[in-house]
Amino acid sequence: EHTPDGGRRHKFIHCVLRVVGYCLLCDGAVLANTDMVCGGNAWRIAIWALALAVTAKAATPTAAAGEPTDIPKMKLHNDYTGNMIGASDPVTTLGQIICGIFVFIMQLGFMFLEVGAVRSTNTVHIIFKNTVDACIGAVVFWGWGYAFAYGSDAGGFIGGTGFLFTDRTETFAFIFVQMMFAMTASTIVSGGMAERTHVLAYLLWSFLSTGFIVPVVMHWVWSPYGWLAEFNYIDHAGSSVVHMLGGASAFIGSYMLGPRIGVFEKNNKTPEGHSVAFFALGALALWSGFFAFNVVSGNNFTDPETVGQVAMSTTLSGVWGGGTSLILVRWRTGKWGVIMCLNGVLGSFVAICAGVAVVPVWSSAVIGAVAGVVVCLSDRLMKRFTIDDPLSATPVHFFAGLWGTLAVGLFSDSPRGSVFLTGEFEQLGIQCVGVLAICGWTCAFTATLFALLAKVERLRVSEKAELSGLDPHKHGELAYPELSHMMEHVEDEDGQLRAELGQVRVELLSLRRLVDDLTSKRSSPALASDSGIVTYEAEGRADVCAGAGAGADVGVGVSVSGGGRNDGDGSGGKQLGGPLRARI
Fold first, then answer.
1. If DSSP codes are grouped into helix, strand and coil, which group holds residue 499?
2. Of 186, 236, 261, 379, which one is least surrounded by beta carbons within 10 A?
3. Contact at 8 Å (CB) between 354 and 404?
4. DSSP letter assigned to residue 259
C-alpha cells in the first residue's frame, strides 16, 4: 500500500479476484469435459499454477512517485552489476571459471546418484540423458537462454538482447557459471522420472527448461532489472531458482507418469537401486560441487571474509542435515540408513543456498537440521500418496528448497528484517510471493508439456520396455555386457511379457552368505553341491536362489507356488504360468 487511499491494495485485490474467477471458469470447463486433450487433471494443474505466477506478479509493490528508492540492497547477483558481474578482476574471473567447472562436475554427481538408484538395465539410459542434457543446455543457453536471463529488460519479466552472446554486458566467466546453473536445474527432473520416461519427453523438457523456464526465473531474481530483484527477493545461490524449480518439475513428472510397474502394489516393496556405492559416489561429488555452487554465487572473490562465511555456512548446514536425517531413520526403522542420510545432506545443501551469505553462521546449522527433517518427512509423504520418485528428487530439491527460501525471512540480516532476528515479517512475505510466482510459472509450463506428450503417447515407455530395461530396448547397449547371458525375458503364447528374470548380479565372494541366509530362514532347501544349484520354494511369492559348485557357472532358479516350472541348470532359470517381476 503506497498511496494514502490504499489504491494499490485495491488494485491488487481486484486483480486477484479476476484471476481466480477466470481460473474457476476454465476449471469448470475442464471438469465438464475431462477428456479434453489429455484429461482434466493436467490442465487444472497448469491453469492454477499460471494463476499463482500472475497473482504474485500483480502483488509486487512498486515505488510510487516521490517515494525514496535508496533502500540498501543485499549482496546478491543483481547488486554486483557494476562490480563483480561487469568487472574484469583476474581473481574473480579465475574463481568463477574454477567454480563453474566444479558446478559442471555436479552433472557427474547426478549421473552416479541416479545410476545407483535404478536397476542396472537402465544405466546406459541415465548416462545418455546426462550427456545429452549438457549438450542441449549449452547450445540453447548460448542461443537465447542468456538473452532471456540477462538481456535488456521487458517489463521486469524477460530479457530481450544478447542473443548468441552479442551485446553482452557481463564477462564470459560469469556467463559460463550461469550456463552451468541452468543445466543443473534441468538435470534434477531426470531422477524423479527415472526408469519409465520416453527419451523424447526428456529431451523436449531439457530444451524447454534451459531455453525458457529457467532463464526467465533467472531474470526475475538475478538480473538487475527483474521484478523480484526490485522487490528485494533473496535467493543467493538458487534454492528456488534452480532447486525448487527443478524439484517442482520432477514432482509434476512423477505424478503424471504414475509409479513404476510393481511399485506400491500389495506385498511389493519399492524397487531398490543396483549400487549403493554409485549412489554414495554421486552424493559426495555433489557435496563437493555445492561448495563451488554457493561460493561463486554473487560473491566478489576479493572479499575473503564473505567467501569464507559462505563456505563455512554450507558445510555446517550439510552436516547437520545429514545428522538429523540419520537420527530419524534410526529412530523409525532401527537401522543406520546411509541413503536417507545422504539425501538429508543434499537437501540441507539445497536449503542453505538461498540465504548462505545473508544469514548468521549459527543459523545455517538450524536451517540444515530442519532441512534433514523436511527431506525425511516429505519422502514418507510422497510414498503415502503413491507418488513414485526413484531418487527422492522432490523431497531433496523442492521441499528442501522451499524451506530454505522461506528460512531467509526467518534468519536473514536483510534491511527489511527477519522474524527471529528483528521480529519483522516483511522479508518473509516477500519470499512467499517469490515462491508462489516461481512454482506457478514452472508447474504451468511443465504440466502443459507433459500433458501434450502424454496425449501423443510419448511421455511413458511401453510396459515391455520398462520391464526389460531401457538400455537394451532404447539404446541396444548394456552397462554390464558380461552379465547379459544371465538376463532372461520369458513371454507367454500371446507374446506378452509375463516374467522378468533380470538384473542377476551374484558375486562369488558373497554367494555363500546368500545360501547361508536362505538355509537359516527355511528348513529344507534342495542343494546339489556338485552342480552348485540351490532350488527353493516359498509360499505366496517368488524366491530366487543361487549357488555355485566347483567349476560351475553361477545359476538362478525361480519357483512360484501354485504351478509353473523351475529350471536350475546353472545358466539361468525360467518360470512360466504367472506374472513375476524379480529384482535381484
1. strand
2. 261
3. yes
4. P
